[in-house]
Design goal:
Blueprint (H helix, E strand, L loop, with lengths): L14 E2 L9 E2 L12 E5 L11 E7 L2 E8 L7 H4 L9 H5 L6 H16 L5 H30 L3 H22 L8 E2 L2 E2 L7 H12 L2 H10 L2 H7 L7 H7 L4 H5 L6 H4 L20 H25 L19 E9 L2 E9 L7 E5 L1 H6 L2 H4 L8 H8 L3 H5 L1
Antiparallel strand pairs: 1-2, 3-4, 4-5, 6-7, 8-9, 9-10
Helix pairs in contact: 3-4, 4-5, 4-12, 4-15, 5-6, 6-12, 12-15
Length: 400
């Protein structure tokens, strides 16, 4: 198994062209590594949305073929992990919203799980089910953004209008009813959830499930099995199972390479052990498989929401945790969940004060992005955005 490619940060030695040639003098790629005599350096980004956020990718080209690729991240760094040392435990929840802002519910959830481990808190059953309902609705909403924007990446605009402008808006309407926000929710709280579902909300969720079920065939007819779309994604950007594991890839990207692992089933948290669902897998690990796994996961998430609505118990929505001056015992805790983009983890260290001593985030987007420097090699420039889009990164989570 070859070692992952990494940028070379030491100053490179110059490549001196033959005396008297038009290119006489040193040729540098001053940030990454030297380029050959017949190669060209191309900066792709930072720009939005074609690089799915403020991401810069430095490409070295031999004609139209990519010979080297180096992602350059950090343009959206906000120091969330350091800020955590100056915020109380409840105040930190709003910062987690702004990591992967397309799935803020799962960010809230994993952080609260870590704090609850420090506290040894018990979560009421109704709150556990509400967490699963909003978590899976958020997974569906996140995958709908991927579905629509990936179509745009390939050149198909219409699917975006359906997925982003029609179905996702219905989910955001439900979120607005239950927590008052449409993007950064701050709904899942330490010990439970912010508030119970308002009157009629469960019935409106059921109506959405009924509405959504027939839309997947429409999506498949429109984009999934569109011959042009399949030609642009099949066999492109292949990531083998072995390489995916070596890089620490997780989530849909790992399952698209054929590795059967989903934390909701294999390392269950909350009350996921009470639910039945399937884990979609790919075979080739190419762009199409990464797309198809997410498309199929939408149906599974909808099925989990339907089961949770049927089983939703009555009762309290907040456990017995201090409402003010929350000071977990000194110690450390780690919580992890299956976020829409993979294995999302939070590591907390408490020193028995009202603020964390340390917090570290394991962001799936950051780790999954590493693969770009390998799977782009040998591809054409025209396939770059198709490959990047299939990884489905969110730069707020990459840069933190």
């Amino acid at each position: 198994m070859s070692e992952p490619l990494i940028p070379i940060h030491e100053p490179p030695s110059p490549v001196v062209a033959p005396s008297g040639s038009a290119a006489e003098g040193p040729v540098f790629d001053t940030k990454f590594e030297r380029i050959g005599e017949h190669e060209m350096l191309l900066n792709m980004g930072p720009q939005h949305p074609s690089t799915h956020g403020v991401l810069r990718v430095v490409l070295t080209l031999d004609g139209e073929v990519i010979t080297r690729a180096a992602p350059d991240v950090g343009y959206l760094h906000r120091g969330v992990e350091k800020l955590s040392e100056y915020r109380t435990y409840p105040q930190l929840i709003v910062l987690t919203d702004r990591l992967d802002y397309l799935s803020a519910m799962t960010n809230n959830w994993v952080y609260c799980l870590a704090v609850e481990k420090l506290l040894g808190a018990q979560i009421p059953a109704r709150a556990e089910y509400l967490r699963i309902i909003v978590g899976e609705l958020n997974r569906l909403a996140s995958h709908l953004v991927f579905f629509g924007t990936y179509g745009i990446d390939i050149g198909a605009f219409t699917p975006f209008l359906y997925a982003f402008g029609r179905e996702r808006e219905r989910i955001l309407d439900l979120f607005e009813e239950i927590c008052g926000a449409r993007l950064t929710y701050n709904y899942i709280r330490i010990g439970g959830v912010m508030a119970d579902a308002p009157e009629g909300w469960v019935d409106r969720c059921r109506d959405f499930v009924t509405y959504m079920k027939p839309k997947f065939k429409e999506y498949d007819d429109l984009l999934t099995y569109n011959p042009i779309f399949m030609d642009r994604t099949k066999g492109i950007g292949v990531l083998s199972k072995e390489k995916a594991i070596a890089y620490g890839v997780s989530g849909p990207n790992l399952r698209a390479s054929g590795w059967d692992y989903d934390m909701r089933r294999d390392l269950p948290y909350g009350v996921y052990k009470d639910f039945t669902f399937q884990v979609p897998l790919g075979q080739q690990g190419d762009c199409f498989d990464r797309f198809l796994v997410r498309r199929l996961e939408m149906e599974q998430s909808l099925g989990i929401v339907e089961q949770a609505l049927d089983k939703l118990p009555q009762g309290e929505t907040m456990g017995k945790v201090p409402k003010v001056n929350l000071r977990p015992p000194a110690g450390e805790a780690y919580a992890q969940i299956e976020a829409p983009r993979g294995w999302l983890g939070i590591y907390l260290v408490s020193d028995n004060t009202d603020k964390p001593y340390r917090m570290h985030i394991r962001p799936p987007s950051f780790i999954n992005l590493q693969t770009l420097q390998e799977i782009l090699i040998g591809s054409k420039v025209a396939d770059t955005i198709a490959i990047l889009g299939s990884i489905d990164i969110v730069l707020g989570e990459v840069d933190r």
